[in-house]
Structure formats: structure tokens, C-alpha cells
Amino acid sequence: MRILVIEDEISISKMLEYDLKQMNYEVDVAFDGLKGYQMAKELDYDVIILDLMLPGMNGIEVCKKLRKHGCESHILMLTAMDDELQKVEGLDVGADDYVTKPFSPRELTARIKAVSRRKKSSEDKHKLVYQTLELDSRSYEVFVDQEKIDLTLKEFELLEYLIVNKGRALSREQLLSKLWGYSYDGDTRVVDVHIFKLREKVPFLQEMIKTVRGIGYKLL
Predict the structure, then answer these.
(1) What is the Cα–Cα distance from 43 to 51, expressed in whole angstroms?
(2) Is the CB of residue 151 less than 8 Å from the CB of residue 159?
(3) Are 9 and 49 in contact (CB under 8 A)?
């Protein structure tokens, strides 16, 4: 796991860097808000430990700008005092959790592990796995044996629906209604064409997507 520490107090940042590296985390350090913001934009960090009071750009502004930029790292805010308003403001702009100074390495480690578990759980919700195939509904990517397969949007949606309904016979009309909408009045053969394309692009699906005579298709 890669962690960015944005903390201007040298003693604290060095202590954090040492403790986190002892736990086999990759650690980068920034000593002001602007530098930390630039590093977080350019590199993909799992966790950002962000001090509230920083030169250049304070922690609230860094957090706000990172979330606006689309940063999905888990952000732990460090506050120097037990100020409820500061904590609420930090959470409102996108921080995932906060730690009040002074804190013990054990507490910080527990918080990092907690946000990491939440991240993994969140990521898992976006993924479907079928045999050697992995489908990510957030990035619209499909991998077979870790090799990316290029699918059109409708091919992706069809494959996703087949996996979610694995073992069920799905009629062409049902697939049309779900994926093309109730107002679709085109030829039902559009489903057959997309099934053909899926089988062509993902060869092992030729055996796994079965034609159910008189009905439609079923993923085994």
C-alpha cells in the first residue's frame, strides 16, 4: 500500500515515515499543502495522511481540491486540537476519517487498516468475477486471465447481465427490455448479434453461453 504524508512538522512527518515503513508501506512525504496536493494529483496513493494546518495550502483546501479533481485516495485528517467544527468541516469536504494529535502509532495504524478494509470492500462491490473473467462496472473494463478485452458498451452490459443472472434462461425480449429499453422496437436479432460478438471476443464463452431453443440464452 502506498501512503502520502502531508505534514509540515518535521519531527511528526519523520516519525510517521519511519513507523509506516516499518510496516512495509511505501511512504512519500510533503512538507506543505501545495506540494502535497501536486504529488497526490500526479501519483495514485491508497491513503493520504493530511495535516489540517499547513503552509501554502491548508488541509481543508487540499482535501477539497483533491476530491474535486477526482482523487479516490482515503484521506486521514490530522488535527492539533479536539475541535468538533474542524473535524466536521474536514469530513464535509471529503476526508474519510480524522486523528487528533497527539496520537499513538498503534491508533494511526488501526485507522489506516480500517480505511483500507473499507476501500477493498467498496472496490469489490464494483467487480464481478466469472471463472477467469473479471468485470469492473465502475471502469467498464473486462479482463480475461488479466488481459484486457475491448467490448462495446452494449456488449459489456450484456455480459454483466448474463453474469448477474448466471444459470437463468433469459429471453431475447427480456434482454431487449433490460438493455435496450422498453421503447426499443427494432429487430430482436440485435441480441443474437451481440451474443455472437461476445463469443467471438471471449472464446471460452462459446461453451458457457448456451442457446436455449425458443427462449434465448443462458450463462452456465
Answers:
(1) 19
(2) yes
(3) no
DSSP letter (8 states) at residue 94:
T
Specify the DSSP element, H or E, that contains 119.
Answer: helix 105-125
pTM, rounded to two decimals: 0.56
Given a cut of 70, is residue 59 above it in pLDDT? yes
84 CB-side CA count, 13 A: 0
Kind of pairing between the strands at 127-130 and 133-136: antiparallel
If you classify domain 2-123 with CATH, what class do you get? alpha beta
pLDDT at 119 (0 to 100): 60
Predicted confidence at residue 80, as pLDDT, reads 72
Domain ranges of the chain: 2-123, 127-219
Coil, helix or strand at residue 16:
helix
Query: What backbone torsions phi and psi does residue 218 show, to the nearest 5 degrees?
Result: -145, 135
Whether the predicted pLDDT of 7 surpasses 90: yes
Give me the chain's average pLDDT, please.
Answer: 86
Task: Please tell me the class of the 127-219 domain.
Answer: mainly alpha
CA distance 148 to 151: 9
